[in-house]
Amino acid sequence: AQKTIIKLQSELLSVKDQQMDSIRTTVETSVSSTVKEEMKSYSAAVQSSVMEKPVSQTILKKVVQDVVQGEDRAKNVMIFGLEEETEEDLGVKVNEILQSLGEKPRVEAC
């Protein structure tokens, strides 16, 4: 009786192994075919994402000007309440104020 149980268990394990191999093969085939269908080469992806209508020179120029103006304004500083005296060097006075704040300014115009 014990030999029969061991033989049946052995057959059961063999059938389970065959089922697992069948499932593994099915999954590998399915994944492989899906990946092949969905994979694109870099050039194919770039071609599909390229705009159909090229950007005009005037639009590009306007965008660049807007960016440059925004960056220029981001670096501007205005100081209110600063008393001006006759014949004083305003650049030196502004430098002193900014240095007291821990900034290292580059003054271009006052």
Order of helices and strands: HHHH
Q: What sort of overall outline do the alpha carbons produce when their principal axes are compared?
A: elongated
Portion of residues in beta strands equals under 5%
Low-confidence stretches: none
Tell me the Rg in angstroms: 38 Å
State the helix count. Answer: 4
- Helix percent band: 55-70%
- First and last CA, distance: 106 Å
Structural class: mainly alpha
Mean of the pLDDT scores?
A: 79
Instruction: Give a short account of the largest sheet.
Output: none
What is the β-strand count? 0
Structure characterization notes:
This protein is mainly alpha-helical. 67% of the residues lie in helices and 0% in strands. It has helices at 2-38, 42-49, 57-74, 90-100. The N and C termini lie far apart (106 Å).
What topology emerges from the helices and strands here?
Elements: H1 2-38, H2 42-49, H3 57-74, H4 90-100
Notable traits:
110 residues, mainly alpha
Concise description?
The termini are far apart. With 110 residues, the protein is an all-alpha fold. The protein has helices spanning 2-38, 42-49, 57-74, 90-100.
